[in-house]
Fold this protein.
Amino acid sequence: MYPESLRNLIEGFKSFPGIGEKTAERLAFSVLDADTEKVGAFIDSMKDVKEKIHPCKICNHLTENEICEICSNKLRDQSTLCVVEDPRSVILFERLGSYNGMYHVLNGLISPMEGINPEDIGIDKLLSRIKENNFKEIILAVKPSIEGETTALYIKKILDGLPLRVSKIASGIPIGADMEYIDSMTLERALLDRKNIE
Amino acid sequence: MYPESLRNLIEGFKSFPGIGEKTAERLAFSVLDADTEKVGAFIDSMKDVKEKIHPCKICNHLTENEICEICSNKLRDQSTLCVVEDPRSVILFERLGSYNGMYHVLNGLISPMEGINPEDIGIDKLLSRIKENNFKEIILAVKPSIEGETTALYIKKILDGLPLRVSKIASGIPIGADMEYIDSMTLERALLDRKNIE
């Protein structure tokens, strides 16, 4: 029903996460309708991303340089290291504006079910970095799933004996959530991790 | 917070209709994570669409050839012409599979409010085509908005006197819709256009 090139573009859009047939059609038509110049600029930005961006040599966060802006920033607190599972988490924390320490980006989380082992997510690089620096605290900021817990426990274990505080960000009921929509695992965790009112 | 090239790509995605900041970020990251080869193929399909697709010389529908597949198909009913406002409408009707006539794609709808006049949407080309062919019926398949009604009335007027049936697709309550969610204009129209039960 579509000319071949348009069909190919629709299929291309459909291969993006969360894009279904209808949205892909809408996007493909908007490429068709857009100025050639604008589409050219979009294509260039896509090429740029593939060519220029790579992991920071120190922390694995995305950068166009050898060392990312966060690792290069000497004004940040060099004694705290926040370990995250992907570069998007760094962005989320940076957006908060309240964390001023360093980051280390893992290549995902340990998942024995999917055959993802500690060496696959770059634990060695993390361990070397921690040993070569004088961090006072390692904050594990991974999601509270089986994989996240496994990864956190593994890191906690290999850091055993080092003069460090190893912490994990809190799980519980999201602020503003309605109790009735909270799943039972989250509720159970919130109960277990209850805190004294001070 | 993002490397410049990634920020540019996110902005690029945001310029698509219906794509907000979060979705744009997700799409940009998936470009970053995708195989370079796959991104290359996607870029090529985008270039192809801009280079190969143009309006059919007869009906304005999208095609990679001079004449589109529908206009070239001699097995279709050459006596019925369905007038639509854009190429997407052709796709919608073709998907039904029940319409076997020809199409004519306007370049949008007449809108005095936005300064879009009959000559802007290619009414001349439509009129010439109708005069040069032996259509028995012209079906106006434009949306039931002020612009759609204006366009339909205008076409009806300029075809006055020609030996043709000029019809318009029905407006009313969508099949399966809940009455309570129908807006008052649609309900009013459904009431006005009521049919005898046969």
